Amino acid sequence: MNRKENNDDKERLLNQDVDTEIEIDTYDDGEDGIGLKIQQAINIPTPQPSQPSPSTSQQKQESSFSTIASVIAFYFVISITLVFLNKTLMSDFNFEYPLFITWYQQIISFISIYIMTNISSKVPALSFFPAFEFKRETAIKVLPVTIVLTGMIIFNNLCLEYVEVSFYQIARSLTICFSIIFTYLILKTKTSYRATLACLVVFLGFILGSVGEVNFSWKGIVFGLLSSCFVALYSIYVKKVLPACDGNEWRLSIYNTAISIVLMFPLLIISGEASTIMGEKLLHSFTFWVYMTIAGICGYLISISVFMQIKHTSPLTNNISGTVKACVQTILAVMIWGNKITFQNGLGIAIVIGGSFWYSFIRYQEMRK
C-alpha cells in the first residue's frame, strides 16, 4: 500500500513539474511583422537542471545592444553621406536631374547586389547573401513595397533639390505623424492620447520651421511631405512582404532594386529628363561619374541599413533614428554649406527633435506595461 502511494505521489509531482515548464509566450513578431507568434517550450525536468549563469545573460544583453548600436551607427554614416553626395551633385555640379540620379543609383545597386550574390559562396564573410534569383510569382507579391520604395527614393531626391540640407530635416519631419495614421488605417492599431499629443508637438515644430525658413519652397515642402508619407508606409509594408522572400531582407533587395529600375524608366521619359540630359557636358566628366557611382553604392547600402534597422529594432525606432540623424545632418550642413538658420527655423528644429524623443519615450513606457 505504501509503495503504491509513493508511486502515485511521484507521478503527481512529475505531471506538476511538466505543467510548470510549459511556457507559451505570445508577442508581436519583430522580425517578420506578420502578427502574433506563439512559442512553446516543453522541458522535461531533470534531477539537476542547468541554469544560465548571470555572466551568460549579461553577455547576450551586451551582444544585443552592440548589434543595435552598430546597425544604427551604420545607418547614420551611410544616410548622411548619401544626402551630402546627392546635394553636391544637384547643387555644386548643377546637375538638376533627380530622377536620372535615382535611376542610376538603382542600377549601381543592382550591379552591387549581383556581384555580392555571386561571390557570397566563395567569401565566408558574405555567406549571408542568398543566391541570385528572380521569380515572377515572388515579384508580383513584392511589387507593392517596391512601388513604395521607389516613391520614397524619388521624393527624397526631389525634396533635396528644392530645399537646403539644413531644412531637409524639417521638410521630412512628419514621418512619425504619418506612421500613426497608417498604423491605424492599415494595422487597425490605435495610438494613445499621450503619443498623439507628442505627434502634434512634432507637427508644431514643422510649422514653425517651415515659416522661419529663409529659402522657403512650396515644391520642397510638398515633396518632403510625400517623402515622409512613403517612408512611413515602407516601414510598415517591408515587414508584411518579407515572408514572400522567406524572411530574407537580402533577397527582398534583389526584387526591390530590379523592379524599381523598370518602374522608373517610363518616368524618365514622361518627365522629359531622358530627352534633355543628352546635352549635358557633365556626362563627359570622369569626376562626375565617380560621385554618381559612389552615391549609387551608398544608395545600395542605405537600403541594407534600413532593412537591418527595422529587423533588429522596430519601424518606430527606424523613424526616430532617422530624425536624430537629421539633427546631426543639419549641424553638418551649416558647417559645410553655411546654410543660414533663423531663430524661428532653429526653434522649429528643436521642437521637432524634442517631440520625437518624447514620442519615443512614451512608446517605450507603453511597451513596458
What's the count of strands?
2
Overall helicity: over 70%
**What percent of residues are in strands?**
under 5%
Query: How are strands sequenced across the largest beta sheet?
Result: 1-2
SSE run: HEEHHHHHHHHHHHH
Biggest beta sheet attributes: 2 strands, antiparallel
Give the structural class: mainly alpha
Helix count, per DSSP?
A: 13
Oligomer: single chain
Question: Can you offer a commentary on this structure?
Answer:
The protein is mainly alpha-helical and 369 residues long. It has one domain. 74% of the residues lie in helices and 3% in strands. The protein has 13 helices and two strands. A two-stranded antiparallel ribbon has the order 1-2. Strand 1 and strand 2 form a beta hairpin. Helix 3 crosses helix 11. It starts with a helix and ends with a helix. The N terminus is likely disordered.
